[in-house]
Design a protein that fits this description.
Blueprint: E1 7-11, H1 12-18, E2 33-38, E3 41-47, E4 50-51, E5 55-59, E6 62-63, H2 67-70, E7 79-86, H3 90-93, E8 100-106, E9 115-123, E10 128-137, E11 143-155, E12 162-175, E13 180-194, E14 199-200, E15 202-203, H4 204-207, E16 211-212, E17 216-218, E18 220-221, E19 228-229, E20 232-235, E21 249-264, E22 269-286, E23 290-293, E24 298-301, E25 304-325, E26 328-348, E27 357-359, E28 378-397, E29 402-420, E30 432-436, E31 439-450, E32 453-464, E33 482-495, E34 500-512, E35 515-517, E36 523-525, E37 528-540, E38 546-560, E39 563-564, E40 567-568, E41 580-590, E42 597-606, E43 609-610, E44 617-619, E45 622-634, E46 645-653, E47 661-663, E48 671-674, E49 679-687
Parallel strand pairs: 5-8
Antiparallel strand pairs: 1-7, 2-3, 3-4, 5-6, 7-8, 9-10, 9-49, 10-11, 11-12, 12-13, 13-21, 14-48, 15-20, 16-20, 17-44, 18-19, 21-22, 22-25, 23-24, 24-27, 25-26, 26-28, 28-29, 29-30, 29-31, 31-32, 32-33, 33-34, 34-37, 35-36, 37-38, 38-41, 39-40, 41-42, 42-45, 43-44, 45-46, 46-49, 47-48
Length: 688
């Protein structure tokens, strides 16, 4: 209520109730947020007209790099919550905070008796999940722990597509005294499997009676030969077909080491420190592009590989001071961040080693990744990013109703890049280094004329020293900053003894000097993106045991001064941006039964979106609905001693079995990522 911005938190309880299994799914009920798992950039988000690296992703407040380079499919079992902060605010989270920020917060220790939990689930596609968690106080005075381990297989409706996910996290908190606490945390994540890069778009003339209406429309350009395809459709005979090679492989190993302290210097002053070390190895070996060939009515494919070796170290120090200024309540927060981010890319270099091949549309022979001429001949690119950032923000309550908020952040980025091509030559413009020192700020107010009714407005800025992601900057693109600013105003209210709440927000965002990806290897200067929108959300418990919630977001996003191949596309809408998103849900709990039962459901409408920046290919609007029911079996009726309660759930996802285009990667304009069909899920959880 005191934050002059749009903030939404999806906690673990909501994840379990709504069945959010991965971080991508946590966006399904969020206001105006879309998400998708493109194979090359999984767990991507679209917020307020910006997508992929235009939305900052943090892990416990730590930035590891652009989302479209560093993010992975991640299970939610080990998370305490996912935080969504809308709009540009480098002041809060640093680089890439244009459309907003998404912060993953892992579960932490609690004091008191040890509590354990076990949950598992299985669905009709073959997805299964298991998780065990435990936490509480140990026999050592002042020492608390939390431990979580999860294993899941995310199976797909696409033939041969799956992800195996393993996640282990643990944290120890030790209260040295009433005012000083230290912590240490370890988290290991491993994912691996086969990838789905999309379903190819085909002409209506090819699909004939098998054309699936309501999925896509318009025209597209063949990536390989430039021919125009259209009018477009998706062939219903290919809805589960995988065009990747049989031995494709994607995966990553990630290790987090974190430690620090929290020190209350007085009742009003607190210092927190977090030092961290993060390492990751990622790889992709695939056939990724599937373009319909008009001449032969077949699918043209490529081969591609890339690996990452990344290491990030850093330290964040936070100061919070609650005091008074000439008798007025005042709160000051300051942060100092320092980090080193090293990443090595090894990827396809010699194009002659990776010729395209051709497969049938309806019965593609997957073939193998093996290429003529022996092993891959890679290009190598090394990037080193040193960051020093300091920020300060102050909240002064002029009166009990009116507060003024102001803050400033100064960043010092130094990027160094070098590399070598597959043939031993040095890339043009490398090695090189560049330093940026952007300053961003926020000015805002909150006005609370009635208790828990808050009006707010803010102006904030953000700067990104990146043409197409910080690790892709070269002298041949642009070394300028992209700059963003936002105007936002809104109102929030919590009333009816906490049984009802609603929020309304209106915003205007402008981003300049934007580079946009126009294929999988090339970016172009788009000049400017301007977005405007209105977001409305509300929730109420009108009577006991009844929950109702709904939200809607209207977004208008447009390019300005943007040309592709010499043709103006100014006025176009960026990819994966919906003009209207509506979510709604309801549940009723039969609490007086011997075994309490809750039934509920949710509805989601997403408007037309565009696959690529030329707006030629439309991903048509869709509506999906989910239903669920769960029963809580109390301790007295359980055969297992020691268990406090058990919950058994049954869920149906996409009950109408809608076929729809859920997401796209504009670097692959020949294909779309389809949403999952109707799926049944059975799960159980126990606590003791």
């Amino acid at each position: 209520m005191e934050t002059p911005a749009s903030v939404e938190i999806v906690d673990q309880q909501k994840m379990q109730e709504q069945g959010y299994r991965t971080t991508t799914e946590t966006a399904q009920g969020a206001v105006g947020v879309l998400s998708g798992d493109a194979a090359g950039a999984p767990a991507g988000f679209s917020m307020r007209g910006f997508t992929y690296s235009g939305v900052n992703v943090l892990y416990n407040g730590i930035w590891t790099g652009p989302q479209d380079i560093t993010s992975r499919v991640m299970d939610t079992a080990n998370l305490d919550r996912v935080e969504f902060l809308k709009g540009p605010s480098s002041l809060m989270s640093g680089l890439d905070a244009i459309g907003g920020s998404v912060n993953y917060v892992t579960r932490t220790p609690t004091s008191g008796p040890i509590k354990n939990e076990l949950d598992t689930s299985l669905d009709s596609l073959g997805t299964y999940r298991t998780h065990f968690g435990s936490g509480g106080s140990t026999a050592v005075a002042g020492l608390d722990y939390r431990f979580d381990v999860s294993q899941s297989k995310v199976a797909s409706f696409i033939d041969g597509d799956f992800e195996n996910l393993t996640n282990f996290s643990t944290q120890l908190n030790y209260r040295v005294s009433d005012t000083f606490k230290v912590f240490a945390a370890i988290e290991y994540k491993n994912d691996g499997g086969h990838a789905y890069w999309g379903t190819p778009l085909v002409p209506l003339s090819f699909a004939g009676p098998f054309a699936k209406s309501g999925v896509v429309s318009g025209t597209a350009v063949n990536t390989f030969d430039g021919s125009i395809l259209g009018p477009l459709t998706v062939d219903s005979r290919t809805l589960t077909t995988n065009y990747n090679v049989a031995d494709n492989s994607v995966g990553a190993h990630e290790l987090w080491l974190r430690g620090g302290f929290e020190w209350a210097l007085s009742n009003d002053v607190t210092i927190k420190n977090q030092v961290y070390d993060y390492s990751a190895q990622r790889h992709w070996f695939d056939s990724e592009t599937y373009a319909f060939d008009l001449a032969s009515s077949t699918i043209d494919r490529d081969r591609f590989f890339v690996t990452h070796n990344q290491h990030v170290t850093g330290d964040n120090t936070d100061l919070a001071w609650n005091g008074a200024f000439f008798g007025m309540e005042n709160r000051l927060a300051a942060q100092l961040q320092v980090s080193r981010n090293d990443i090595k890319f090894t990827q396809e270099g010699n194009p002659d080693v990776f010729p395209a091949d051709t497969v049938s549309v309806l019965n593609p022979d997957p073939g193998g990744y093996d290429v003529p001429g022996g092993p891959p001949e890679p290009d190598v690119r090394n990037s080193h990013l040193d960051t020093l950032a300091g920020s300060i923000e102050d909240r002064l309550k002029l009166t009990p109703m009116l507060a003024l908020i102001g803050g400033v952040r100064v960043d010092d980025f130094r990027l160094e890049r070098d590399g070598i091509n597959f043939d031993g030559t040095i890339p043009a413009g490398q090695p090189f280094s560049k330093t940026w020192t952007p300053v961003s700020y926020r000015a805002a107010y909150t006005f609370e004329p009635v208790h828990n009714l808050v009006f707010y407005s803010m102006y904030a800025t953000a700067f990104d020293p990146a043409a197409a992601g910080i690790f892709s900057v070269t002298p041949g693109t642009s070394l300028e900053l992209t700059s963003s600013r936002i105007y936002e105003t809104g109102v929030k209210q919590l009333f009816w003894d906490g049984k009802a709440e609603w929020t309304l927000a209106a915003y205007d965002i402008q981003r300049q000097n934007v580079y946009v990806q126009i294929n999988d290897t090339t970016s172009a200067l788009a000049g400017e993106i301007r977005t405007k929108g209105i977001e409305l959300s509300g929730a109420v418990n009108p009577v006991d045991n009844v929950k109702l919630w709904a939200n809607a977001a209207v977004t208008q996003a447009r390019y300005a001064n943007f040309y592709i191949d010499g043709e103006s596309v100014s006025g176009n809408t960026p990819s994966n941006v919906a003009p209207l998103i509506v979510n709604a849900g309801a549940s009723y709990r039969f609490n007086n039964w011997r075994w309490p039962v809750e039934i509920g459901g949710s509805l989601r409408y997403v408007g037309n979106r565009y696959l690529f920046e030329d707006d030629a290919t439309t991903m048509d609007a869709y509506t999906t609905a989910d239903l669920y029911a769960f029963v809580d079996i109390p301790k007295r009726d359980l055969p297992w001693q020691g268990i406090d309660t058990m919950r058994v759930k049954f869920r149906v996802r996409n009950i109408t079995n809608a076929v729809y285009a859920a997401w796209s990667d504009p670097g692959y304009p020949d294909q779309v990522l389809l949403g999952a069909p109707r799926t049944y899920e059975l799960s159980a959880s126990a606590k003791w």
